[in-house]
Amino acid sequence: MLDAAEQLFFERGFAAVSLSDIAQAAGVTKPIAYRHFKTKDGAYLACARRAQADFAQALVQRADPTQAVREQFAAAADLFYELLETHPERWELIYGSAAVLPAESRDELSALRLGNIETTYALITKDHPDIPKLFAEGLSHAMSGAAERLGHWWRSRPDLDRQHMVDIHVEIFYAAVAPYLDSRSTAKR
């Protein structure tokens, strides 16, 4: 049912999808859809939770502390843009406009996004424990926000390939964090 709901939300938008539509697309009865999701918001959030959990798990799996920082950033950026390229519906669930959702559902979606930020923070501080924690926290938020905006930009620029986006992403964030990776610079901060 989640696959069917995901596809419908992506194709039609939140407002144009009902639980009846999801049930029909999934080949189940309406009572099953209502029992499983309770509300359309519940279906949307279940899809977003799954997409976020899959992304966070893939990010942790792809993290390789033996790589140089630039390569780690490239691997994480490539994963993000791969998600956008191969599963735009999943990306849209997390980073698309949530304005149509009721306030409590928007809050839960914000919490899911915060989960991505916390995963990024954990990876940064685990691999680089000397980076000042406040800087790592701010960097995690900046990386998430900028990645979201770069994702929206890329969707409007089909002439750009994924590698181009990865390169832009890496250059922006490596420049921000490089001074903190030099132990002499870190010791002075």
TrEMBL record:
<dbReference type="InterPro" id="IPR050109">
    <property type="entry name" value="HTH-type_TetR-like_transc_reg"/>
</dbReference>
<dbReference type="Pfam" id="PF00440">
    <property type="entry name" value="TetR_N"/>
</dbReference>
<protein>
    <submittedName>
        <fullName>Bacterial regulatory s, tetR family protein</fullName>
    </submittedName>
</protein>
<dbReference type="GO" id="GO:0000976">
    <property type="term" value="F:transcription cis-regulatory region binding"/>
</dbReference>
<dbReference type="InterPro" id="IPR009057">
    <property type="entry name" value="Homeodomain-like_sf"/>
</dbReference>
<feature type="domain" description="HTH tetR-type">
    <location>
        <begin position="1"/>
        <end position="55"/>
    </location>
</feature>
<dbReference type="GO" id="GO:0003700">
    <property type="term" value="F:DNA-binding transcription factor activity"/>
</dbReference>
<keyword id="KW-0238">DNA-binding</keyword>
<dbReference type="InterPro" id="IPR001647">
    <property type="entry name" value="HTH_TetR"/>
</dbReference>
<feature type="DNA-binding region" description="H-T-H motif">
    <location>
        <begin position="18"/>
        <end position="37"/>
    </location>
</feature>
